[in-house]
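hey all, quick one before standup. I had two proteins in the batch that finished overnight and I want to keep them in one place so we stop losing track of which output belongs to which input. First protein below, input sequence then structure tokens straight from the run.
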Amino acid sequence: MAGTAAAPAAGPEPMPSYAQLVRRGWGSALAAARDCGDCGWGLARRGLAEHAHLAPPELLLLALGALGWTALRAAATARLFRPLAKRCRLQPRDAAKMPESAWKFLFYLGAWSYSAYLLFGTDYPFFHDPPSVFYDWKPGMAVPRDISAAYLLQGSFYGHSIYATLYMDAWRKDSVVMLVHHVVTLVLIVSSYAFRYHNVGVLVLFLHDISDVQLEFTKLNIYFKFRGGTHHRLHALAADLGCVSFSVSWFWFRLYWFPLKVLYATWHCSLRSVPDIPFYFFFNSLLLALTLMNLYWFLYIVAFAAKVLTGQMRELSDVREYDSVVETPSSKSSKDEKPLRNGLVKDKNF
């Protein structure tokens, strides 16, 4: 059985800098690779047999949960979101997309609130002391019920999201990356539960869901600001503030806290607590892929902000479709061009 380490008496370890993350994480990974005399498929099979704990009823419950989310979304869209869009007289393109954002906003708000409760409303020290996610780790250890509930909700939702991206959501320029993101996230959720890395999972979910809450909040206000054929300043202001908050939180939670808390704990601190921790490279590769996707989307955000700041966009549109352009008077073509609505030209996906 893998050896474990108890919590140090000195208290939580200070959060590292980016340089310390790279230096210590890379050093730990190289040392692990050098010390691994048998890192082939045989070791992987033995690791699965010895350390993976996932019962068939749990997989069945996950699949049923995914079906349940899909049915619930379809019912909410037909009975709540579409009638609301019709009652508010949203523009046709906004009315078509509002149900997707409303559904995601409600889920992510609830999911993030629950993750925040686990990290700040209980005795779990994972946020303030990320290395503690591996203290007293044992293969096959029991998963607390409150964390199991978070895993069931999130895992089943991302199973639903793979189907939803293909068949229910509006297709956007980054939908392929979004699909890859959902697959990677689902694999991380299921495998981290099976290998009992659930403490890390709670921290990862908390650091990611807040950005989705703000993204969908911003999009909803964009859709509602032209309801009833008139411009509503309150929704426009909320959309502007939401966009700023979303951009800041994306960097702070996903590109600052996520690498310096989660990656530092998994790449470096995990080997100090559990020297022969199973599937070290597998999990860290998935977390690194998640980091790269976060960076990819951050480039979208920067490009979107640049267009707003340089005057290429006078109004906020869907922040996942940042390349919509505002047509200036000098660029208007001639007689066969249709009149602009509110001075905006949006791409075909919006």
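OK second protein, same deal, sequence then tokens:
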Amino acid sequence: MPNIKVFSGTSHPDLAQRIVDRLGIDLGKVVTKKFSNLETCVEIGESVRGEDVYIVQSGSGEINDNLMELLIMINACKIASASRVTAVIPCFPYARQDKKDKLQGGEDGFENAKFSNKNYDWKFRSRAPISAKLVANMLSVAGADHIITMDLHASQIQGFFDIPVDNLYAEPAVLKWIRENIPEWKNSIIVSPDAGGAKRVTSIADRLNVEFALIHKERKKANEVASMVLVGDVKEKIAILVDDMADTCGTIVHAADRLVEAGALKVYAILTHGIFSGPAISRINNACFEAVVVTNTIPQDGHMRDCPKIQCIDVSMMFAEAVRRTHNGESVSYLFSNVPY
């Protein structure tokens, strides 16, 4: 593949290596370091003049540092006369802050929130930022010409950009995993742990020709789930919880318990982005899951060592094919419903 360079940030070098192995090229040379005051310094180690550049950096780990590193790498390539710079961001950072809305107290990631005023009004967030839009602006200003990501938390984030955004779906890889690893999948039911994921589970259920259900959470106050109402019949079935991300895993663990109470034979969880911060790993270890399946948009080696229930789906071939098709000017829509072999 002529005139193409793929560089890796420090957030997920394993995924970047898998992508270039699939493409049959070498990773570009880049040196990333921090000064004593923790400023990030990036040096591109080879010419990118006139090249089609792809920078792989996921929104995981030290998210703020990794985002800043990505912005600097984009800008470094742009001012070194790269013809096009594409940011490959498997897990888009700040994607949950996509709108001004009521603060859903107790949502994953907000459980350890600290407020200076204990009388904080949880009902309205009229002064909340739309941070995902800010990240979009920063990427554009840094010089990104194109974004490739996977399973955005909210699809309207694509509209925050004035540059092309390819939002790939993990769904084809998820369907392949279900058919190959759950022998009783024809007796399964696909479950969304919240109302927001209804569209996602109905799509998967239709492709598998099985039923779907969803769980509605009701809260009396912040950080406290009053009840979880199951809409659908899971009795004597294999329940497969599907969501785009799990952070502290409070929601999916409660959902799994609710499914077992309702008579589900087994419970699986399939998540695109397994963030697993705070008490997540201990919660999964103590929960009733047969398996918690995640993709490698975020590094999972450490999580898999600490929790034998976690299994990983490799999606590097989808990103590699998206890079190849983008470079060659081909359509990417094939990847929305197929896994490239």
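Flagging for whoever picks this up: Residues 104-109 have pLDDT under 50 and may be disordered. The longest helix spans residues 63-79.
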